[in-house]
Structure formats: structure tokens, C-alpha cells
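Two records follow; treat each independently.
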Amino acid sequence: MGEGTTLIYCGIDWAERTYDVALVDDGGALVAKRHITDDAAGYKLLLELLAEHGDTEENPILVAIETSRGLLVAVLRTGKRKVYAINPLAAARYRDRHSVSRKKSDPGDALVLANILRTDMRAHRPLPGDSDLGRAIAVVARAQQDALWNRQQIANQLRSLLREYYPAALEAFVAWTNGLCRPEARELLKAAPTPSRAARLTRTQLQAAFKRAGRKGGIEADADRVRDVFRADFVHQPLLVENALGKQMLALLIQLEAACTASDQLAEAVEEAFPQHPDAEILLSFPGLGIQLAARILAEIGDDRTRFADARGLKAYAGASPITRASGKKSSITRRWVKNDRLNHTGYLWAFASLRASAGANAHYRRRREHGDWHAAAQRNLFNRMIGQLYHCLQHGQLFDEHAAFPTEVAAAA
């Protein structure tokens, strides 16, 4: 900015259909305010308002808003403009700095957001400048993760229901990985929603159910095993209650079918998009990372190399590094509670999978256990180390090297 130029900061309080906009100068004076609609006409008015107060392509006005999603954010992120997504809890604390009466209004919140940038911009981070491909992968990877969680939640509900009246089904499916989520299990439950009907299934009907589920081999042996389980002696609910529970189970089964289909389709979308990204080769070179887990990590850390100042920032963001709480003579080191939960969950799976894929990772985990760490703490320590190595590899464009990553552990394992 040239000498004598007045800096302008923009705050936007968003709602479902309308937005309140406030512009303040570097002295804190309100320069302009406007109420716009959530449509193309409203976005045009906003851009015109910013342009009237010095917004240019080379020197865009900074914007603070309490969300990182939506069409308005996409419009604002065009060009070089920096958009700051302020946590609503943080914005509420800033509101108390300007008024102790606890009054609140949408125009007032927009003014508070603008002043946050004016006074404490260094304490907040702009939205990362990820590529369009990186953001697209983030959409499908997060959606696939949500679909998996939804599938598991419905499967748990179905399992709980089957325990009430249909334990034979659970015993028949226990030999299969992801039992109730398997196509064979769903087809069998459709054919026999109650234990009374299951006991009457013939070998031919069971084999037909397996074929409808897409099974190619081992049909006869599995059909005989399931038939024996269904005809074993189990306690039954009264017939009317059993039939009612069967109808409830079929309703849950429809939801489970939809969740399984959504999860599979989104997994295919991830497998199609992720290999196209330039960072895919580096991520997949790490032990324990397949396409799905690697895509989830990329979705959370992005491909903007300037997003994290150093590896410590990424470790804290992932919740892998410990946090120290000290006051007077008291001091404690605990795990982080404020973190990116998606990345932290993915890191736990990554660390667990790397135990078999990497001798160095396994030796590091064993050494932590021998020093007294619980299983979760040892895995978190391993994740902390590996995500730091990932940061280094991404910054320098290097693939994972087992001997460079775990020199002491690999030698000891050998």
C-alpha cells in the first residue's frame, strides 16, 4: 500500500439468506455497512462496495467471516484476497471487549469481525490457498469418511436390534469381516427377517442369496454353515413381537444399504481423483497409507506449502504433539483436546496400519510401550513422528525413506 493510504477491513456476519457487511478503517471508524442477500445480486453489491473503498486485484481488502464454506466464500477467494474464517466462539469473546451489556445484533457482529482483523490479524490465519484439485479431493474424502461413520452407526443400531430377537444372525455373520455390512449378510436378512423364517430356509434358497450378493466361490460351504446356525436351538420372542421386530429390522436394513452404497461410490470417486494430485506419490510412499487414508490426510492438511510455518504447527493441528499446562509449582503434560478431529482419527489408523508395513515404525512403537506408554499413547507418539516426516517430505519433494526415517529402530529390528 502506498504512503498515506487508509487500510480498510471487512467483516461479514452470515446467515442462511442474508449477510451484514461492515467496513472499518485502520482507526476503527465505521466506513460503510450494508445488508445483502445470499444470491448473485447480493454478491455483486458486496464486490461493488469493496471496490468503492479501494479494493483492487493487486491490493484486495481483507475479509473476516465466521465460516469457511459456501458460495460467498468461493466468490471472495477469487484472486489474491485473503479470507479469514473466525471461530464463532472467538468472535463471541471479542464481542465482550466492545460491550459488557451482552447486546447482540447482526450488524454489530459484522463490525466486531472487521475489528478482529484490524487489531489481532496476526493471531488468526487466512484460509489456505489450496488448489482446486486439492479442494475437490477434500470434498470427496471427507464425504467418504462421513459415509463410513454413518454406515458404522447404522450397523451398530442393527446389531443391537438383532441381539434382542435374532442372535442366530449375529452368530452366522461373525466369521465375516464387517459382518452386517457385507452384501451376503444383507441379502440373508432380506430373505429371512425373523429367526422363524430363517430356520425354514433351504440350502437352495441360501445359495441363491449368496449369488445375489455377488459371491463367486465357497457358496456351498457357507450355505451349509449358515443353515446349521439358523436351525440351532435359540430362544425366541413371541411370534407377534418377533414379526414386529423383523419389520423394524428391514427398515434399518434399507438405511444400511443406502449407507453402504454411498460409501462405496465415494470411495471410487476418491480412487479416481487422488492419484491425479502431484502429492499423491509422496503420500503413498509412506508405510500404512493407501489411497483412502492418504486422501483424508491431504484433505485436512491441503497442498498450500505456506499453511504451516513448521512441522510443530502441523503436529499441533493434528493433535499428535502433547501440550504442557504449567501454573506455579504445578506442571502436567497431556494430549491435546483442541485439534482437527478428522486428521487425528486418520492418524490413529495410519499409525496402526504402519506397524505391519514398516519395521522401523513397529520398533518405535515397541520401544514406547517398553518405556511405559499405553497403546494409544504409543500410537500417538508414532503418528507425531511420522507426520513430522511427512511435512519434511512434502516441503522438499522427497519420497519416504525407511532408513532415514527410523535409522536406530531399523538397525535394532534387523
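The next record belongs to a different protein.
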Amino acid sequence: MTRKTVRIAMNGVTGRMGYRQHLVRSILALREQGGLDLGDGTVLWPEPVLLGRREHALREIAERHGLEHVSTDLDAVLADPDVDIYFDSQVTSAREESLRKAIAAGKHVYTEKPTATGLAGALGLARLARDRGIRHGVVQDKIFLPGLRKLKRLVDAGFFGRVLSVRGEFGYWVFEGDRQPAQRPSWNYRAEDGGGIVLDMFPHWEYVLHELFGRVTSVQALATTHIPRRWDEHGRPYAATADDAAYGIFEIEGGAIAQINSSWTVRVHRDELVEFQVDGTHGSAVAGLRHCRAQHRGATPKPVWNPDLPATEVFRDQWQEIPDNTDFDNGFKAQWELFLRHVHAGTPYRWDLLAGARGVQLAELGLRSSAEGRRLDVPEVAP
């Protein structure tokens, strides 16, 4: 067995997502299992280089996990010929410039989304990567979740017949920060720092709908800031200039309609923090992060509307749980494995910077739709 070290510059690991999902549950988890076995006698051994602005925080993480390499100098890390991959999970406003530098340095890039704050920047990154000849990927973690993988299994089996509609609910209450600390960083609520739920979540909805049902062809959205004043990490009040809730309607190629509500100002009354209900001519399903339940047309009850009598049916009990039938690994780790195989062996990989640009496009058009109060077509994105 040959062990090949892959050095990965990881920018943004002091943040919640970069640390927990990408460093601990993906890269360090791969090291704990002995590396990534490619099946050809080669094992890829990921060696992270922790990169960021706060050296003390980086060193604390490195010491906690027994890691060696820490830097606050992006240019120096990108100039190191031993660094193979640049990964970015910084704040959105800093991402595009850093990715441009990494591509120019000839590094393969893997990045959180959105890849840029606007479509022009996102397409520019895709073109730069194509022209430089590097391999590139964008995190699209939702489609690797157990619940959505089970939903995809139903789609591929033709369970739904003709898909009619998709209804999605995402969100939870993010505390304002005065009486209780907020669960999300304050930059999320400042438009000038790349914040806003549309820019954060519409890229997710683009690839979820695209992967499962088809290309989004139009969008009509209403974005709003329900809570205009919040308190930051130091207890200081600030004006929330970014949207904290968005209500979207998306047309899908083939005729299905998706309605998705995204909100950081909603209290959860559902089984999981995100749920999608899919209704088709032959059956329906409800999928969340981990679970998926279905109801076939042959097993569909016949409810009758009668407001004069209390309901005697337990509607949730009328749905069948879709079994796991396999072991589901962490979704972030699963996509990291695919990207590392792509970098090493050139295996097919479709979740690239162009796919990321589609997500940025949908967010940009969603915000424009909200501002103009009208439905907008979503043109196909080409590099």
C-alpha cells in the first residue's frame, strides 16, 4: 500500500462550519480511518494547513488535534509548491479574491458556497479555473444527507410518477443576541459583509432542485428583514441590513413548481430543521436531514373535509418510513472523498465552480425579483 500525502490549505477553520464539518468531521475523520483508500493500492493522506487571520485561534486548534501547520499568510501558503489544494470557508465577502489567488497559483480549489457575491464574479472564477486547468469543486452538502439520498432513490425509481410540486421549509429562531447569544455570526445579518439568507440558502435550493427534479427556469421571491436590530458577539447593537427570511416560488424544467420558505425568524414545529414534501401523480414523500417518509397512491387515504367534527385520523401514521438500506457517512466527508478522488485520479465530478455559479445566479435573481416585485426567468449558465 502506497501512502500519498495531499496538503490542503484550509482557510476559515476558526468558523463553526469550517471547523466542525470540514476539519473535524471530514479531514480529521479521514485521518482517523487511516486515510482515503483509492482501491488501487494507494491511500491518500490529507495533511491540513490551517489558514486564517487569528494565529492564536489557529494554534489552539492545531494543538487540540495534534496538527503541525499553521499560517496567517495566504500568499506564502499559495506559493508553497507542496500545497496541493486550497479550501475556503471564510466569510462570503472574502471568498472570491482568495479563490482567484489560489487559482492563479495553480492550486486545485474546493470551496463553500456562495462562491462569490454576484454572478459575474462566480462565472469569472469558473472561467479562470477552466483556463488554468485546475480541478475545482463547490460544497453541495444537502444532496449527501441521508434524507435526501433516500428521496433521490424514490425519484430514480419513478415512485412519484409526474412530479407536481415541491414544498420546502427551512429555518429556526436565531436569537437577536441581547438576552441570549445568537447561534450565527453577526456578519450573516449585514449585507455589506455578504450576509443575508437569500445569498446563503438559495444556492442550496438551486442544486437540490437541479439534482433531484431538474433545472430551475424561473424564480419569484420576497425577501425581508423581519428583525432590523441585533447584537453582535461583543454585545453591541447593530442594524441588520441583510434579509433574514425569504419566500420563494421556483418553476422547474418539466413543469413542477417548488415553494421554499427560508427563515432565521421562525420557531420549529416540524420533525427536522429542513423538510421537503414532494407530491406526484403516483405518490408523495416528505424528506428531512435524516428521515424520508412516503405514501403511494395505492395506499393514499380518502380524507373528507368536515370542520364540524374533530379529526380522528393520525395523518403522520399513514406514511411509510423509507429504510436506510446502507450506512450513510457524514455528507461533508462524503463529498470531500469524491473531490479528493477527482483531484488524484480525474474521476468525474460535476459539482464544480460552474455549478456553484448557478447557485449564485439564483440568489442574485431572487434578490432582484424581490426588489422589483416580479417573476424572473433563470437563463442557463454557460462558462
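Discussion point: The mean pLDDT is 96. How would you locate this feature using only the C-alpha cell line?
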